[in-house]
Amino acid sequence: MELGKKYPWPRPARCLSCKSSRVWGHGYVQRYYEGFLRPLWTRRLRCPDCHTVYTLRPDLFYRGFRYSVLTILSSLASKISDLRWLPSIPRQNQQYWYRGLKLQAQRLGNVPFPDGDTVKGIILSGFIPVSHLLDCAMLRL
Ligand SMILES: [Zn+2]
Predict the structure, then answer these.
(1) The pLDDT of residue 122
(2) Nearest-CA neighbor of 3 among 83, 101, 70, 76?
(3) 48 CA distance to ligand 1 middle (Å)
(4) What's the pLDDT score for residue 117?
(5) Which pLDDT belongs to residue 50?
(6) Most buried residue, 21, 29, 57, 98, by CB count within 10 Å?
(7) 5: CA distance to ligand 1 center in Å?
(8) What span, in angstroms and rounded, lies between the C-alpha atoms of 98 and 85?
């Protein structure tokens, strides 16, 4: 999966330091994020008035899911290794993700009890690990 430079970065309308409305693009840097094998392109912005540089963290989302990828993967990791759901997220959401994972694990590898390697394998194959759809190729960003 590649987070390219076409990602629709949210940008602040005003500088958070000096309130200037002139916040300009300032190139991209590659950053590593938890759960990703390769660095992701990360947008930088710069305020020409006070010279503050902003680095915008990508909040990645799977299509159709309102929680971020990192949240979903954290939930799966907790369920798989600690046999419990994350306390901060509604249980129904996490059960839904886990059922999706079981569905994809069965479909792609005939694995009845998915573990961390199963999740990685599904992601590296380019699929959304928690999708309930059979056609769930990940949206390329
Ligand atoms: Zn500024």
Answers:
(1) 80
(2) 70
(3) 7
(4) 85
(5) 92
(6) 98
(7) 24
(8) 10
What is the CA(35)–ligand 1 centre distance, in A?
33
Provide φ and ψ at 73, rounded to 5°.
-65, -35
Task: Give residue 134's pLDDT.
Answer: 63
Ligand 1 geometric centre to CA of 58 (Å): 21
CA of 21 to the centre of ligand 1 (A): 8
DSSP per-residue codes, 68-117 = BHHHHHHHHHIIIIISS--TTS-HHHHHHHHHHHHHHHHHHH--SS--HH
Contact between 45 and 24 under an 8 Å Cβ cutoff? The reply is yes
pLDDT along the chain (141 residues), means of 10: 51 77 84 65 84 70 71 87 90 94 89 86 76 58 33
- Cα dihedral 65, 128, 121, 116, rounded to 10, equals 20
